[in-house]
Amino acid sequence: MITVVHPGAKVSLRDLPTDARNGYSGKDDPQAIEDLAKLLARLSELQERLMAGAKQSLLVVLQAMDAAGKDGVLRKVAGPLDSRGVSVYSFKAPAGEEAGHDYLWRVHARCPRKGELTLFNRSHYEDVLVVRVLDLVPKARWSRRFDHINAFEEMLHDEGTRVVKIFLHISKAEQGRRLQERLDIPEKNWKFDPRDLDMRAKWDDFQEAYEDCFERTSTQHAPWHIVSADRKWARDIAVARLLVETLEDMDPQYPEPNYDPKAIKILP
Ligand code: ATP
Ligand code: MG
């Protein structure tokens, strides 16, 4: 299920489902398998048109608690696309040169060029989320950032970049299962970071920070989409459908050739 946050609306995350099945019986439901395949094929077509037309851009912002599936979405939904026109960027805590600039500097530099589809794994939203929960900058500073972010995204929109913001909504219990799995399965050990447990201990603070963030930064041109994400297969279908609908609305077109294809004959 996807909940679109209307500008200024209050959100209560605990009232939104994390485990929606979207009408399918389960991950082996033939309809679910067929729908995902069709959506991914359609997404590939539309992305090729976006890339070939090189007139508009699409920026997908992925935010979530640890282990909510940002990497899974990138692999399953963005993975099959034409890598020439797709870029993924994962934002970590700012370091080196990044830390010497304002918080939007590194973000703006990674925004898509014309024709490109860029996916952000975390984003400028960390600067009003983790920064707030861990008290990394004073409230007087981070609380002014909502307005900066809205103005920044409005500028991107006005200049031809569609901004789609997605929050993968999982339950604390499901996060617990996934983190435990990262400890139990040797091949998944690399995904575990002991610091994830410090963040998990602040679960309620993060949920509250997210709720305020949705209320302050869901705008007409760049609303937040809250996606039920406990069931990975349902999450992938929901995100794929959202991206297809967004691109259909953008309706990118192949460029007109700058020659007459009918006037040229190569084979006799
Ligand atoms: P996974 O869910 O697979 O662990 P991840 O996105 O958590 O992926 P990590 O490398 O584990 O990736 O973590 C990146 C860390 O960087 C996160 O804890 C995030 O909160 C932090 N981070 C990102 N941007 C900022 C920022 N602007 N200020 C402070 N911390 C940030
Ligand atoms: Mg992490």
What is the number of domains?
1
Which secondary-structure class do the elements indicate? alpha/beta
Major β-sheet profile: 6 strands, mixed
Strand and helix order: EHEHEHEHHHEHHHEH
**CATH domain topology:** Rossmann fold
Within CATH, the superfamily carries the name P-loop containing nucleotide triphosphate hydrolases
User: Which percent bin holds the helix content?
Assistant: 40-55%
Residue stretches low in confidence (pLDDT < 50, at least 5 long) are: none
What best-fitting shape do the alpha-carbon axes yield?
globular
**CATH class bucket:** Alpha Beta
Q: In angstroms, what is the radius of gyration? A: 20 Å
CATH architecture: 3-Layer(aba) Sandwich
Q: Which molecules other than protein and nucleic acid are bound?
A: adenosine-5'-triphosphate, magnesium ion
Describe the fold and architecture.
The protein is α/β, with parallel strands linked by helices. The chain has one domain (2-21, 54-250): 3-Layer(aba) Sandwich (Rossmann fold). It has helices at 30-53, 70-78, 105-109, 130-133, 139-142, 145-158, 172-184, 195-201, 203-217, 232-250; strands at residues 2-4, 57-64, 86-90, 117-121, 161-169, 224-228. Strands 1-6-5-2-4-3 form a 6-stranded mixed beta sheet, with helices on both faces.
Question: TL;DR?
Answer:
With 268 residues, the chain is of the alpha/beta class. Helices cover 43% and strands 13% of the residues.
Helix-strand blueprint:
Elements: E1 2-4, H1 30-53, E2 57-64, H2 70-78, E3 86-90, H3 105-109, E4 117-121, H4 130-133, H5 139-142, H6 145-158, E5 161-169, H7 172-184, H8 195-201, H9 203-217, E6 224-228, H10 232-250
Parallel strand pairs: 2-4, 2-5, 3-4, 5-6
Antiparallel strand pairs: 1-6
